[in-house]
Every structure is written in C-alpha cells, then in structure tokens.
Amino acid sequence: MIPVQLTIEGLYSYRERQIIDFKNLTGAGLFGIFGSVGSGKSSILEAISFALYGETERLNMRDKRAYNMMNLKSNVSYIEFDFMNFENKVFRATRDFRRNSKKFEDVKPSSVTFYEQKNHQWIPLEHSDAEKIIGLNYANFKRTIIIPQGQFKEFLELGATERTTMMKEIFNLQRFDLQNNVASLNVKNRSELDQLDGQLKGFEEITEEQISAQKEVLKIEQHSFSDARERFKKISDRFQQLKNLKTDFENLEQKKNRFTILSEQKKEIDILESQTDLYDRVSRIFSPLIAEKNKLSKEISAKQSQAEIQRKTAHETELEFNTIKEHIASLQPQFEALEQSKIQENDLKLIVQIMIYSEEIKKLQERTDRGSEEVKEVEGKRKNIQNNIDLLSKEIDILKAKKLDSGILIPVGNWFTQYKGLKKMKEDSSEKIKKQQIEILKISDELKAFPENFKEDFKIKKEKLEIQKKAFSQKLDSLKIQQELARFSKELQHGEACPLCGSPEHPNVVEFHDVNAELREFEEKVRSVDQALLNLQKQETETDKISERKNIFDHQLKAEQNIISGIQKDIESHLKAFIWTEFNTEKEAEFNQKRAASLETEKQIEQLSQTITKERNTLSKELENLEKYQKALETFRIQEAKKEEQIHIHQSNLKIVSWENYSGKATEEVEEIYQKLSRSNSETEKNYQGLIEKEKQVSPRLAEEKTVLSQLEKQISELKLEISSNMELIGTLLSENNFSDLAEVEKILIQEFNVEDSRNRIQKFKIDFETLKNGILELEEKLKHFTFDNEMFETQQNEVNAAETQLKQLNDTVVKLTSEIERLEKEHHKKEDLLKNLGILQKRAENLKTMTNLFKAAGFVQYVSSIYLRQLCDHANIRFHRMTRNQLSLQLNENNDFEIIDYLNEGRSRSIKTLSGGQSFQVSLSLALALAESVQANALSDKNFFFIDEGFGTQDLESVNIVFETLNALQKENRIVGIISHVEELKEKIPVALEIIKDEERGSIINII
Questions:
Q1: CB atoms within 10 A of CB 44
Q2: Distance of alpha carbon 506 from alpha carbon 509, whole angstroms
C-alpha cells in the first residue's frame, strides 16, 4: 500500500481542511512528520487507519468514537484517503459524520464509500472492505505497514500461539493446515470401507465352483427338455387331427339346428316383405301431397289469426289518433296567447331581481359602515406600535455608545491569552532547566570516581592486559605442545612409524618433564587476565553510559536554554505588539471587567433588538389587516355601484308590467306570482308540443297497420286457392290406385314403417338361409366316410395334457437354472470389483493414517510458521547486528519464543524483556522491517511502504545515527519509510518532512519543510 493523498477536516485537533500530498514525500524515499507533543502527528495515522478499516487505536465504539474524534469546534468531520495497492491500482476511501444541530453530543455514524480510479474517473465500489484491496486485516496492517504509537513492540511480545495465528493470516499459512482435509478424506474413506464390507457380506457364498456345478445341472435339464419336446410334438399332431374331426361333426349339428329355426321364420319374413312394398308405394305417392295440404291449412289458420289481431290494433290506433286531434284543438287558443304571457313572465323576473338587488345594497351599506370603524381602530394600533419601536431604537443607540468595539476586544483578548501561554512556557522551560542541571550535577559526581582522562587510562590498562594475555597465551601454547610431544614419545614403539616424521626407528627419543602443573598455572593466569579485561570492559561501558547520559542532558539543557531564550524574545516581541492605549498590559483583570460589561451591554442590545423585531412583526400584521380591510371596503363600494346600475338596466327592460304596480309589494309575494305564471306557461307549451309530437308518431303508425291488414287478407285468399288445387290432385290419385277415400291411405301411412331397415332385415335373412343350407350340404359331403369316437378323443387329450405339463415343468427348470447362472456370474463380477476397490481403500486408509499423524494439532502449520519466523529472524539480525555493533542477536528458542543472544556474555541467551528501552526499539524496528519486507514481497509489490510512530526518543545520539543510516539505506531497496517524531536530530537529517503546528484558533496546521 502506497499513500497518494490524504484530506482531513474536523478530526481531533484538525479544524480546517488539510490536504497532504504524499507524492513528493514518498518520492524522497524517507520522510518525516514532526511537531510538538499534542500537535496532531499521530492523528494522521489514525485518519488513514479509520478511513480504510473504520478502526482506531485510541478509541472504540464504546468510547463514543464519532463524538470524541470530531473537533469540538466543528460540526462535520471528513476523511478522504487515496492510495495505491500491490496491483498498482489507485483507490479512494471516504468517511464522514455530522453533529446533530439540536444535540451537541449526538454525532451521527459515519458513512463510508470506496472508489477505484478508472480512466481518470472515480467509480464507486459495491463494498467497503479494505482487506480485499490491500490483502491485510486491521491487526496485521498495524503490524506491518503503519505501526501506531504504543504498538511498536506488539509483534515481538506476542505469545507463540498468537504469533502463529498472525503468521497464518499474513502469509496464508492456512493452506498448510490440512488436518480437516485429511480428516474429511479419512471419514469418507472409512465410510466407503464400511459400505464395501457390508456389500461383501452378501457375496460370501458366491464362488466359481458353485457356478460350474449349476452349469452341469443345466446341461442335464436341457437334454431332458429336448426329448420331452419331441415326444409332445408327435402326440400333439395326432390329437390335433381328432380335434379337427370333432369340430366338423359338432359344426354340422349346430348348422342343422339353426336351419330348422330359420325355416320356421321364413313365413313371417314373406309377410313383412309384402307389407313393406305396400307402405313404400303409398308413401311415395301420397305423403308429399298430404304434407302440402296440411302445411297450407296451417298457414291459412295462422294468417287468419294475424289478420284478426292486426284489425283490432288498427282500430285502437285510430281511436288514439282522433283523441289527440281533439286535445290539440282545445289547447290551440292558450298556445297562441303564450308569447304575450312569456313577456309578462320575463318582466316579473326582472322585478324580482330588482327587489333582490335593493336588499343586497342595504346589506353592503351596513358592512361598509362597520368596516370604516374597524379601519379607524387598526390605524390607531399601528401608530402606537410605531411609537414603541421609535422609543426602543433610541435606547439601543444609547447602549451602543456605551459598548466597546468588538474589533478591539477580540485581538486584545487573544493577546492576553498568548501572553499567558508564553509566560507558562517560560516557567515550564525554567523548571526543566533546573531539573536538568540537578541531573548533570549528579552525573558529574558519579564521574569524579574515575580519573580525569579515564578513556586514555582504560586504553592503557587494556593494552597492558592484552600484552600479558598474549604472553601467557604463547607460553600456554608452548606447554600444550610439550605435553602432546611427551604423550607421543611415550607411545612410540620400535618398528612403528613415528606420527611426526614417519621413521620406523627411534634411536634418540627425547624425554620431557611433566608440565601439567605449569600448564594449569598459565591457564589460571589467562583466565585472570580475561576476567580483568571483562571487568575493565564493564567499567568502560559503565563510564560510557554515564558520559553519554551527561552528553544527552547537556544537549537537552542547551536546547532548553535556547528554547527559553526564544520564548523571552517572543515575550518581548509580544509586548511591543500591544498597541491599545486604552488598556494596560499588566491589568488584565481590568480588561476582563470592561469586556464583561461590554458583553452585558451587548446582551441588552440583543434583547432590545429582539423586542423591536417582535414589534415590527406585529406592525407588519396590523398593516396587513389594515390593507385587507381597506380592500374589503373598496370591494363593497364597487359591488353597491354595480347593483345600482343593474337595477336601472332591469327597469328600462320592462315591456308590459310597470314597476310602480309592484314596488310596494314584498319580494316573496312577487316571486310567488312569477313562479305561478312561469309554471303555467311551461305546462301549456309542454302539453301542446307533446300532443303535436304524439300526432306525428301515431299518424304513420295507423297508415302502416292498415296496409299490413290489407296484405294479410290478400295472402289468405291466395292460400285457399292453392289448397283447393291440392285436393283435386289427391282425388285423382285415389281413383287411379283403387282407394275409396283418403282415410284408407292415411291408415296405411300411420303405421310409420322403416322401409330401409325392413328391407335390410329381409335381405340378411335370405343370405343367412341360403348360406346355412349350402354349408350343411358341404359338411355332409366331407364327413360321409368318417365316424367320431368320444372316448378315444378324451384318452388322446389326457396324453397331450400330461406331455404338455411335463414339457412346461422342464422348461421352467431350464429357465430358472439359466437365470440363476446369469445372476451368479453377475454377482461374481460385482464381488471381484468390490474386492479390488477394497484393496485400494485399505491402502488409502494406511496413507491417510500417516497423513493424520503428520497434520494433527496444526503441527505442520506450526512447523512452516517456525521456518518463516526463523527467516524473519535472519533478515532482522542483518540490521539488528549493525545497530548493536554485533553485540546482540535475535533467535527463536525451542518453544518458538523470541530471545536474545548476548555476545558480551559468552553468547548466552536471555529474555527479550531484559532489553533496555532503546534496545527494544532497535530489535522491534529490525523485526518490523523484516516482517513488512516479507509481507509486501509476498504481495509482489514494486514498492513497499512502512510508517513508524515512536521509539526515537529512547535512543542516544550514536544510536539515532545508526537507526537513521538503516532507514536511509532502505531507499536503495526500493522501500518508502515515514517516521513520526519530535527528535530534532532526525528533523535535521531527513530531506523532506511535514511540520504540524497547533494554532489555538485554527487548530492543527500542516506545513511542508
């Protein structure tokens, strides 16, 4: 993750919107963020963490985080963070929350949106999960990229279990946690084995020997079945001949019986044939004529009924028409006088309207009188309110003259506040100087125990001891050689090769005296010198530490003296900036009293202003009422004039009726006369018009009904002529066919014969009769040389049934045996497949057992994690050795816990908790750099980013230089490092940095230095 730009507003001490462009900072490779304590340095890292993950180190949800993170002088907080992930894609995270205007402590939860930059446009993402984008959760993000204040040693001090969990998350080691996978495979394999065992229990009796035995039995049964089939065929053929002969004799008997029955039915069929012929002839000749006669009779009857009804209807219509004409004649005089009556009706309507307008004019005059009184009353109220406003305005002018100018009060108040701050800073610095001087005196007392030139003295003593150690060591080596030579000389045997010269002969063997005592003496002297050197080294280290502490305090004292000198100059400049002659720099209380009085006056002015505002609002309402009343009065006058004009118009429009005849009457009386006349005119016109309309409707209907009656009478005459012709034709045909009258024909036709069915029945009978007769003759000819014995037939039938039963039994046996052999062969193949699979699963079970032992209890993950941790130790030690001058080293013990190797104490190990604050920072920095390097290398990132927020204050000057060289060297490794510190030495060394300045009015301000 590489930061690109950060925007913060209304967050912690940042009141105004501040924008940090990281491009110039990250381009330098190493940059810093500096500022005094509480200036807002760490808030920058908090803003980044909160923008990405919604989490911070200082606050959680229970701490009312939104309220406490928001600047107390702000109502809106906003964070916008642009960054580049390991895929070189640019993203933006934004968060904001707002304060409730009615409840100060109610700060609404933050809204969050993530964007991705595509084609120079910000496209919103559907999620806000930074872990998907960066590849790290919040806990590992603050361990490997941004290390917040107070969390620098967290990874170093984690327990083995927590550290293994962290390594799993960071390096995706869960891919090596195969315990569950193996267990799942084992359960599945065990289940398959159990299923196979259960299946094989059903195949225990299935063997190849059993199948062979069944095949032998099948061969015997098949041979028996073949013999039985031949025997059955011979017996069946003989029996079939007898069966056919029996069938022929039985068939002949049945045909003779059937022929006897048909012979008896022949007479009946002959009678039916004669009746059918007669009915068919009569029906074809007379049925159409009779049907036509009946049809014509029905039509005449129907037409006569219609003519009677139509004659009655025409008569009724004619009576209605005559009545209408009589009514029209009686209404004719009234209708002719209707026009004059309507003019009178209209005049009465105008008179009624004149009377209504006169009454409305009286009411308008009354309302006008009342409205004039209300206008006078409102005008009086308006004048009183205006006078009150004028008095209040004069009071405000008097108070404004007494009030001090706020343009002077604010800068004077700010001046006194800054002045108190400068004096407090001076007092604090003076107190620090006193403490530092006391510490310097204590350290000077400690140094008095050593010579003035103790460095040179230690050097001389060390050189003497080194010379002694060298001499003793040389003597010790010589004695050891003598001891070895003595051992060799004692072990020499004649004829054996010398281990030094290789000669088999040893004429002059050198004798050596015993040097063991002398050897022990010099070994003791060497140890004594080593101990003296070690003690001398400890003294030198102790004096170096004391001297270094003195240098640090001297440096800090000098820095504080410079600070207090600067503060004094600021105080003098501040005093010169006091330009307000009406106030005194030493009389702040007097200024505060005047400011309080001025503020009280300002409150009074505010209250009076509010009262004036209320009075003006009231005045505005009264003016609105006045205007409303005046408009109403004007409206009344206009309406009155309009109605007067309308009265004159109506009087001039009167034509028959005179206004003077009705002016003295009541409006209701005139209205009643008008309504009565109007109803009479309407009824006369309505009745007359209705009768005329009815006359128009009835006249054509009467003509139409008379025409229909005439047509019906004509049709009846024509039908009577047709039926007369029909009867003449029927008489002629009766004579020709020898019938006495029509009743005889109708008697025949009433039988309703189905000629077609009768003829079909007769035809079928004749065919059956002849066919049966011929069949009997054929069978008698066929069987005239044969006889049939029923006992022989039954005997032969029994033999066939017995042979058939035996054949069926043998066939069933063969089929069953064949099916059983096929089943056994299939089951045997299944058994072979199951046994093959059983062997595979048993082999797999053995392999899974081995894998279970390998992966149980996450042992393999811990093993891989320990490899990663050892690699981290190796990488961290490259920098840690350089920082500690090769005196300390970091390693993992058998429990995967970190411990320290101390080369100044014979390379023995000790707990990391025994390290000093400075050493803890060094090892934590080395380990954090190694961890960040591994994580970001794993992410295949081109550039790596690392941010530190603490630790440099625990380092001495030399250690600071070493740490700075380490961090500076990271640029060559394509690493970007940001640090937050207040150490001045680092500020001078880092090429690009941000400086945070906290202004009392504006909040924290960010400047590039």
A1: 27
A2: 6
Nearest partner of 386 among 736, 127, 166, 626, judged by Cα: 626
| pLDDT confidence band for 611 (50 / 70 / 90) | confident
d(CA 827, CA 819): 12
| Residue type present at position 486 | A
CA 736/CA 719 separation, integer angstroms: 27
Q: Token digits for 1005?
A: 């301000």
- Residue 485: pLDDT band (50, 70, 90) is low
Reduced to 3 states (helix: H, G, I; strand: E, B; else coil), residue 1000 is coil
State how far the Cα of 462 lies from the Cα of 455, in Å rounded to an integer: 11
Query: Is-contact 1009 993, C-beta < 8 A?
Result: yes
**Cβ-count burial of 907 within 10 angstroms (0-12 exposed, 13-18 middle, 19+ buried)?**
exposed
Bigger pLDDT: 486 or 750?
Answer: 750
Are 892 and 866 in contact, with CB atoms under 8 Å apart?
yes
Secondary structure (H, E, C), 843-896: HHHHHHHHHHHHHHHHHHHHHHHHHHHHHHHHHHHHHHHHHCCCCEEEEECCCC
pTM check: above 0.70: no
968 within 8 A of 7, measured Cβ to Cβ: no
Mark out the alpha helices in 737-789 (DSSP H runs): 742-749, 755-782
- 244-258 confidence digits (pLDDT tens): 777 877 787 888 888
CA dihedral 733, 738, 741, 746 (to 10 degrees): -80
Q: Highest-confidence range of 188-192, 370-374, 732-736, by mean pLDDT?
A: 188-192
Q: Rounded distance, CA 961 to CA 455, Å?
A: 22
Helix ranges, 939-983 (H): 957-969
Q: Residue 484: which pLDDT band, with cuts at 50, 70 and 90? A: low
